[in-house]
Every structure is written in structure tokens, then in C-alpha cells.
UniProtKB/TrEMBL annotation:
It comes from the Bacteria. This is Uncharacterized protein. It comes from Shiella aurantiaca.
Length: 348
């Protein structure tokens, strides 16, 4: 994932300057045909999913902003030195035009720049190297066997992560509201508590998150708010040298609210909904050893066929896909038990 610190160059799409665009964070994959070595330059190719935003300002109507995701091909060069890497890359958008409401009823097509140049700085780090010595010497395996019989590798878990929620379905608008953009999603934080059964490779827990999504167009604003408390269980299905995938089920109790505003004045009453949503959860842990007291986890959740009551007096689909890429998970019981076992082992 790349996050731009600054944009350099022209961002106006019209000479009058009322239509602007900006590029945001992107999720990309790069392939290097040759191994990266310090002090040398190597080429790469890849693909990128870019978040972008288009903004139109009208002196009479107000403004309208809409975010979208574009797919681009990329190619570039990398230079590595002492754990750092400099990337210089060129991104190309095969499809660079977009339809955008220029008022509350009419769409016009705007053409974005079809290529972007960027320079990035990357810092390499590895928090698993410290585990290699104990694993090779057999110390890690001995600690695991010492604790496994008494169930001391089972533990309460506490997790925290920034989380993204994406609307796979979104309320649709008509009439004077048709220019309102579809809700795309929102970033929030998730908090979780659970319990790990080490031998069975099972984890059960509760996860809470809340967010608000705003759709804005020429004085109109549609607001969606969501609170979700999910009961989840999943099983770790493999271990690929510390990459540990899992899959399971999630049952989410949720409260939704929708409201419509014109020039910051609420129209009608807030409409509320309470639903139970079954879904799936999957992802992976980065687990350097079998006795770690903390791990980095990636969670992805999918809730299909979610329906809520909307301000237009109808049922709307709001199917959700959620993701976080770096959740910090801590096992306090395991931390204490491993700490005590290491002391016993070392004084053996």
C-alpha cells in the first residue's frame, strides 16, 4: 500500500478551474524478475488499484465530490541500499474517462490524465529474524511441548486495527437526488476480544466497529451510520513458513441510521434499522513461531444481502466488504506462561 505525501503538477481538468481531481492511496503488486541487491538498479512491472477523487465547484449550486477506484498498469526501477529502497515508477490508466454529474440532473464525461509518475521511499524491516536461532536449536519446539500439555498456549486475545468498510451495494437515488454519489465506504477502527485454542487451531471472539459515510452533491447530503458487534469463529487451516491463513463465520448484530440534509438542514426524521447479518471471515496471521505472544493479523469480512430502511421509504441493499491489513493481536495469558517457561528452561 502506497500513501502519497504530496501531489506535484496540474490538478485542474478545465481551464476555468472548477473541476479538480486528486489521486490518493493505492494498493499495488510489483514483480521483480531479478533478486534485489544493494547498490544496483533493477526493473519491475505490476498492477495498481488507485483511489481517486473528482471535485466540481459551482458558484451557485455548490460543490460535488466523488471518489472512485481506477486500475492502472505500472513499470519502474528500484535502487536498494542498506535496508532502504527508492522506487521510480510510471503508472498508466487504460481507461481514463469518467462520467460525472455537472449539475443535479446532467452528466458530462471528463478525461483524466492517462499516466502518472511517482518517486517513493521504502524501508525494509524484519521482525522474524530473532526467532530463527531458537527454532534451529530446538528451543522453540521444547517450549511448545512444555506448555502444550497444560493448555498454557491457549489464551485470551485482544486486538486493535484500522479497518476499511466498502459498500458492495448502496442506496440508489432518483429525482432531484440522482446526482448523489453512491456510498463507497469508510475507514474506522475495530476492537476485538476473543479466546485462542492453540492445539485445535480455533479462535472465537467479539469484534466491534462503527463508522459514518457521507454522500454530498450540490447542497444535498445523504448520511449513513453503522454500528456492528460481531460474534466470530475461525480455524487456522495451514502454516506456510509463518504465513497462517484462516477461514470462519461471522454473525453481526448491527444498528443503522440514515438521514438526508439540504444546506445542512435535516429533511424529515432519521430512519433507523436493526439487523442480524450472517457473513464469512477469512484472512491470515504473520506468525514467526508457535509460541508468539503477539501477531499481526489481516481480517477480511463479507456480509451479503444486508437490507436497511432508507429515507426514501424503501428497503435498500448495503452489502459490506470489510478489510484491515495490520491488526495487532496480543495474547496476555500466553505471554505470561511463555515468560515463566523460558525462565524454567534456561535454569533447567
Amino acid at each position: 500500500m502506497n500513501i502519497p505525501l504530496a501531489n506535484i503538477g496540474e490538478t485542474r481538468l478545465t481551464q476555468e478551474g472548477e473541476v479538480w481531481f486528486s489521486s490518493g492511496a493505492d494498493l499495488s503488486m510489483r514483480y521483480y524478475p531479478w533478486r534485489l541487491l544493494d547498490g544496483k538498479i533493477y526493473p519491475f512491472v505490476g498492477v495498481s488499484f488507485n483511489t481517486m477523487k473528482l471535485l466540481l465547484e459551482d458558484a451557485q449550486l455548490g460543490e460535488r465530490a466523488e471518489g472512485f477506484i481506477a486500475t492502472s498498469a505500472l513499470a519502474g526501477l528500484s535502487y536498494s541500499f542498506k535496508g532502504w529502497r527508492i522506487n521510480a515508477e510510471w503508472m498508466f490508466l487504460p481507461k481514463n474517462d469518467i462520467d460525472f454529474y455537472s449539475n443535479t440532473r446532467d452528466k458530462h464525461r471528463y478525461e483524466l490524465p492517462n499516466s502518472y509518475f511517482s518517486i517513493g521511499l521504502v524501508r525494509h524491516f524484519d521482525f522474524t529474524l530473532g526467532e530463527e536461532g531458537p527454532k534451529r536449536s530446538g528451543k522453540t519446539k521444547a517450549l511448545e511441548e512444555m506448555l502444550l500439555g497444560d493448555g498454557k498456549l491457549n489464551s485470551i486475545s485482544v486486538g486493535f486495527a484500522p479497518n476499511g468498510a466498502h459498500f458492495l451495494k448502496s442506496p440508489s437515488f432518483s429525482g432531484d437526488l440522482r446526482s448523489l454519489p453512491n456510498h463507497k465506504g469508510s475507514f474506522n477502527f475495530e476492537y476485538s476480544i476473543g479466546y485462542l485454542l492453540h492445539k485445535q487451531k480455533l479462535h472465537f471472539g467479539l469484534t466491534y466497529r462503527t463508522y459514518s459515510s457521507n454522500s454530498i452533491s450540490y447542497g444535498w447530503e445523504h448520511v449513513v451510520r453503522r454500528q456492528a458487534l460481531s460474534m466470530e469463529g475461525f480455524k487456522f487451516v495451514a502454516n506456510y513458513h509463518g504465513f497462517v491463513p484462516f477461514v470462519g463465520l461471522s454473525l453481526s448484530a448491527e444498528r443503522w441510521a440514515t438521514g438526508l440534509f439540504e444546506r445542512d438542514i435535516q429533511q424529515d426524521e432519521t430512519v433507523r434499522s436493526s439487523i442480524f447479518s450472517p457473513g464469512i471471515i477469512f484472512g491470515w496471521d504473520i506468525q514467526p513461531s508457535s509460541v508468539d505472544s503477539w501477531v499481526l493479523r489481516t481480517n477480511l469480512r463479507y456480509y451479503p444481502n444486508q437490507k436497511i430502511n432508507d429515507i426514501q421509504g424503501k428497503s435498500s441493499r448495503v452489502d459490506q466488504f470489510e478489510f484491515n491489513f495490520i491488526q495487532f493481536v496480543f495474547y496476555p495469558n500466553r505471554w505470561w506462561n511463555v515468560r515463566q517457561a523460558k525462565r524454567s528452561y534456561e535454569h533447567g
